[in-house]
Each structure stands twice: as C-alpha cells, then as structure tokens.
C-alpha cells in the first residue's frame, strides 16, 4: 500500500500513519508513504522510517518546483508521473488517500500514465470532502472526483460518517469499508493510569475552532470549581484557535486554572495522562486516554453548546466525533460533575472506557486495509471524470490570494461546517 499524506506534522493523521506502518511491519509487510507538502515533524518522521519507506513529492518534482512544496500548490506542479507509477507498482498497486489534495494528485497521475491501481480514500475528517459553499474549481472538482469513486474505494471510520455521506452525495456506500481509527491497545492488563483524587482535566490535540470542546470546558470551569476548588484544565496542543481561547480564559478570569501546555511528542501522551482526573476530547487522543484507564469524555466537534455523548463507553459502534441527533446526548457539565464528585462513578467510567477502547485496535484497522489490497475496483467513472490542471491551479491561486488578502476562508474553514446531513 502506498499511503498518500498531505504532511508529516505532529497531528492525529501522522500518528495514525505510524501505527499503521508498525502494524503492517508486524505482519512482514511494508508500506510506502508519499508526502505531498514539505511540512515534517522530524521525530515522527524518524519513527515512521523504522517501519515504512517515506517519499517526498519535492524530490520527485525536482529543484525547479521544490519551493512550491511548502504548500498544497506543489500538488499542481509539473511531475514526472512515471516515477509515481513506479511507486504504485512497488506497493501492490494500492494507493490509499488521506485527503482531497491526494485525490487530485492521483487523478493527475492517471491522466498522465497508464497504471493498474486500486484507490482507497479514507474519511479522516467528516468535512474533508463533505462541504458546501466552496466555489473554487479545484474544490468542486475534488468533490466530483470523490463522488465518482466506487463505494468499495471508500474507508469510513465510523457509522455516522457513512450515513451522512450517503445522503450528501446521494450514493449507496453499503459496500464501503468501516474500520476503527485504530490505536495500539495494551496487550496485557495494566492498572488504571488516571486518579479519582486528581484535580487535572486534560485535553490533547491541535487547537482548531471545530474542536469546540476546549471552549466548552473553559466556560464550564467556574461552575465546576465550586464543587472542586483546586480543579485545573490542562490543554496540550497548539494552533490557530489558541488566541481565541486565551481571550475566553481572560474574560472569565481563569488564568490560574487553565494551563496552555503547548504541543507534546506522541510518545509522551502516557506521561501527560498519568494521574489525570479526566480527559475531554476527540480524535484518537480520546482513545489513547481511554486505553490507559482515564475517564474519557467525548468532545463532539463543531457544537455550539457544551453537549456530549457521555464517556467513550456510552457510545455504540465507532461514532463519537460528529454530531448525531440519533444518539443519547448529555450536557458536558452533568458528566463532568458525576465524575469529579463520586470516586465510585469515576472508577466505573475509567474501567468501562478502558474496555471500550479495545474495539478500536489498530489490528482491526489494518485487517480492513489489507482486504482492499485484493479487491477489484471499477474506476471507470473516476477515470472518465474531466479534470483540467491549469484551471485547478488557477483556482487554487485565487483561493490563496482571497484567503490572504480578503479574508475568504471558505475552503480553509470547511472542517468547521460540522454534520451537514
């Protein structure tokens, strides 16, 4: 499998690549990783290289266009696609895409060379392709290319996403793959890493507006401290939404109780969570917390109100990131109060979350990905979908200019649209 990634920055997608590569290696298989944009966390890169071959688009396009590789603009640059074709052939003719720019890149490849290929596309964020109101050609074409893929090509990481995409794209995805966004679950039973006597609520993850749970916990903290005066909220991560959160903290006069700890290395997550009272969040970080025996409260993304499905063990299946009116909903305050007020309920939640985390094992994820290696896929519609790179690059440049000088962030903020259907 050749996995096409946007970047190798410190984020959930890159740590997922590390876990997938490590699990493939355990099965005596090696994946390739093609990185489109030259943004790399050196420590994660070093870890991934222990288990996978890593290639960079900047090395394929050559020195002339290398300066473009610091942004997605490089995806539209002239490429010797025979080199990409060789990579595809090396890794069992299976290309796994992690985003819209990878989709555009592979379409360009198939327009340029003839190569036998299986394409799978993972929905790593619900709004990666499911978005409205973005009129640029490259963004509209990405949606059209996605819609032209057969259902067998699509990999969903929860049931809610598949249902939403079926409605949004008016496609039947019943033949798609659903696997968990897997983590490395402990192979032996270990004691609970959290502590009912702690005063630390923890969140881990890059700071973006769609991760609305950070804002909600900060807003709830004054009331929670009436129950537990020494309570603190530790936020590990960095991002563009940090200034907004800092202003909120200041307005509530909570500077001594909300601690912005900055980014941490992936392998330091257990150290951070040791002795934590509770975790609030989404993505794979909530799974890591649950697996370590910390009550893991679900932070539903893109919500205006402080609501939750409860702790991880309260959900059925794999759906927890996105808003789903069909699930039982609680206020975040009532769930936090229950956990911080009662040691028995704390332990019950910690044990249940730890048990639930086992269903999100990376072994199950890789089992699903390996099945795609031998699946027949009819890419006729994808290959027939018209794509003009000169129009695409012009539209991307227009998008970049309007974003930088006129505040048009419709594409950049598409992940804040939430559950559209």
From TrEMBL:
SUPFAM superfamilies: UDP-Glycosyltransferase/glycogen phosphorylase. GO terms for molecular function: glycosyltransferase activity. Residues 197-298 form the Glycosyl transferase family domain. GO terms for biological process: carbohydrate derivative metabolic process. Signal peptide: none annotated. InterPro entries: Glyco_trans_1 (IPR001296). PANTHER family: GLYCOSYLTRANSFERASE. This is 1,2-diacylglycerol 3-alpha-glucosyltransferase. It comes from Pseudomonas deceptionensis.
């Amino acid at each position: 499998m050749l996995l096409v990634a946007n970047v190798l920055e410190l984020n959930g997608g890159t740590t997922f690549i590390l876990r997938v590569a490590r699990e493939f290696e355990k099965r005596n298989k090696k994946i390739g990783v093609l990185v489109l944009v030259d943004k790399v966390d050196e420590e994660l890169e070093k870890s991934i290289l222990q288990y996978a071959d890593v290639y960079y688009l900047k090395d394929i396009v050559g020195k002339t266009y290398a300066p473009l590789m610091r942004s997605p603009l490089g995806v539209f640059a002239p490429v010797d696609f025979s080199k990409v074709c060789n990579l595809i052939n090396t890794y069992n003719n299976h290309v796994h895409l992690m985003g819209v720019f990878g989709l555009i890149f592979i379409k360009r490849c198939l327009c340029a060379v003839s190569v036998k290929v299986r394409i799978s596309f993972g929905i790593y964020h619900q709004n990666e392709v499911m978005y409205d109101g973005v009129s640029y050609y490259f963004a509209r074409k990405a949606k059209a290319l996605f819609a032209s893929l057969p259902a067998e090509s699509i990999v969903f990481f929860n049931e809610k996403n598949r249902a939403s995409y079926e409605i949004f794209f008016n496609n039947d995805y019943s033949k798609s793959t659903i696997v968990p966004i897997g983590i490395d679950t402990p192979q032996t039973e270990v004691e609970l890493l959290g502590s009912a006597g702690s005063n630390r609520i923890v969140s881990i993850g890059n700071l973006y507006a769609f991760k609305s749970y950070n804002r909600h916990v900060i807003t709830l903290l004054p009331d929670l401290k009436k129950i537990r005066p020494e309570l603190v909220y530790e936020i590990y991560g960095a991002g563009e939404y940090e200034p907004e959160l800092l202003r909120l903290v200041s307005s509530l006069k909570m500077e001594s109780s909300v601690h912005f700890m900055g980014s941490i290395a992936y392998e330091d997550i257990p150290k951070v969570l040791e002795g934590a009272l509770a975790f609030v969040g989404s993505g794979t970080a909530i799974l890591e917390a649950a697996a370590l025996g910390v009550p893991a409260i679900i932070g539903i993304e893109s919500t205006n109100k402080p609501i939750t499905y409860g702790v991880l063990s309260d959900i059925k299946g794999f759906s927890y990131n996105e808003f789903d009116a069909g699930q039982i909903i609680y206020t975040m305050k009532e769930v936090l109060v229950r956990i911080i007020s009662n040691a028995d309920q704390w332990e019950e939640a910690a044990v249940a979350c730890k048990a639930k985390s086992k269903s999100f094992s990376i072994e199950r994820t890789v089992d699903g990905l390996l099945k795609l290696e031998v699946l027949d896929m009819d890419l006729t519609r994808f290959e027939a979908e018209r794509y003009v790179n000169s129009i695409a690059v012009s539209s991307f440049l227009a998008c970049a200019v309007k974003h930088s000088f006129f505040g048009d962030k419709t594409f950049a903020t598409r992940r804040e649209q939430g559950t559209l259907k």
